Amino acid sequence: MKVRSAINLFALTGLLLTAACTSGKNQENMTTLNDSSLFPKGDKLPDNYFTGNAFLKPLLPRDANNDFLMGSVTFEAGARTVWHTHPKGQVLIVTEGKGWYQQKGKAAQAIQKGDVINIPENTEHWHGASADTGMVHIAITNYKDDVNVFWLKPVTEEEYAAVNKK
């Protein structure tokens, strides 16, 4: 399978932190799924790695003590990642709403507030909100050298529609 692109999410997190400091007007227009969200919605994530509206609030960058980064990701209804892998795995902790997690070649799993998903290294997968409900999760993404994700192809509308019929 051809890898479309690789991105260092730490660099993306830094860019988003910089953008957040300079875009107060954009922050004012963003609302959380509800008033009880643990963290603010954050900044919009790039359309080439997410379908629909997804936002990142960085929580903890990689540093000398932690070989991972952590962020709160908000998915509006219908939003999702593209297919991707992590060379050292990822953990998702759903804090709000309902959504889906699917490994390539396996049935999609419904996920909701309180679920913890442990994604093994190099496992092709996607995750995101259901078609009619937003979802928020904390993503803890490990590094292997300086890489923590390989972005692949988008989840097709047919793949996503089939999951949401369940």
TrEMBL record:
CDD domains: cupin_HNL-like
Signal peptide (residue range): 1-19
Gene3D superfamilies attached to this UniProt entry: Jelly Rolls
Key word RNA-binding present: no
InterPro entries assigned: Cupin_2, HNL-like_cupin, RmlC-like_jellyroll, RmlC_Cupin_sf
Domain Cupin type-2: 73-136
Keywords for this protein: Signal
SUPFAM superfamilies xrefs: RmlC-like cupins
One family name in Pfam for this protein: Cupin_2
PANTHER family: BLL4564 PROTEIN, RIBD C-TERMINAL DOMAIN CONTAINING PROTEIN
Protein name: Quercetin dioxygenase-like cupin family protein
UniProt organism field: Mucilaginibacter phyllosphaerae
